[in-house]
Amino acid sequence: MKIGVVGAGLMGAEIALVFALAGHDVLLNDRDQASLDRAMARLRSLMTKGVDRGFFEASEIDPTLARIYPTTELQDFADRELVTEAVFEAVDVKRPVLQALAKITAPSCIIATNTSTIPISTLAAEVPEERRGRFIGTHYFSPVSRMKLVEVIPGFDTDAAVVTQVIGIMTDIGKTAIRVKDVAGFAVNRMLHMFIIEAVKLVEEGVATPEDLDTACRLGLGHPIGPFALMDAVTSSLCVQAQEIMQEAYGERFRPPPLLKQRVKAGYGGGKGKSGWLVPAKK
Fold first, then answer.
1. Using the 8-state DSSP alphabet, how is residue 36 labeled?
2. Which candidate in 24, 139, 193, 223 is catalytic?
3. Is 193 considered catalytic here?
4. CA spacing 20 to 30 A to 55: which of 46, 69, 123, 131?
5. pTM, entire model
6. Is residue 246 one of the residues assigned to a domain?
7. pLDDT digits (tens, 9 = 90+) for 161-178
8. Pair (197, 172) in one structural domain
9. Are 157 and 134 in contact (CB under 8 A)?
């Protein structure tokens, strides 16, 4: 298939990678060439390191990356059969991208959004009615190159045949798809953020430290990563944003804990090389 991905950040670049690994022709778009160059360099580094860990074969690297074509021009997406929007998690940011894709791509093109919390039908409202039957949510998990799960979320108007087709495409690229109803936060994030909120409350109450709670989750619950290491990886600010979206939808049970919001405002939000729960502040 001719695949397009809009947004060359952490998620978008790896979504492009998994399609390229499966042999598809992929266009990867971002606003400027520098962002695309960083994304391609990051993918090469990811694959190179993955060879030593047994995730990739060295012989895969160049052919796979050669199937990803960086472009700053959305007009290049006119011939795409499936396009995934993977830009920042805010309707105001996604709106112009989705509107542009609806104008540029063919009526037969499937437009997918990689939102993690925003209802799909809310985003489908940004494209013309005649395109909503081929609009769908595909929520990947980070790191996309290793995490097998994809939540497939049809909107109110998504055609049943499109849902079946997209689930098949996910299987073909090595993912396991589950169909989820179109509600804020979908399924996994609703469970995850209740867990994260309670973990932060335990720290607020002085019950245990972030380090000990992560150890408890790994050794007592069998989780591969604890909630505080996870927040440091995906950023606490993204967690606050997701919780606020779900608080609006479901009420007080998803209100971000005061300590979590305070740490974000103080600059302890985590992210690569930045201070978080487990990563000490730079002196």
1. H
2. 139
3. no
4. 69
5. 0.92
6. yes
7. 999 999 999 999 999 999
8. no
9. no
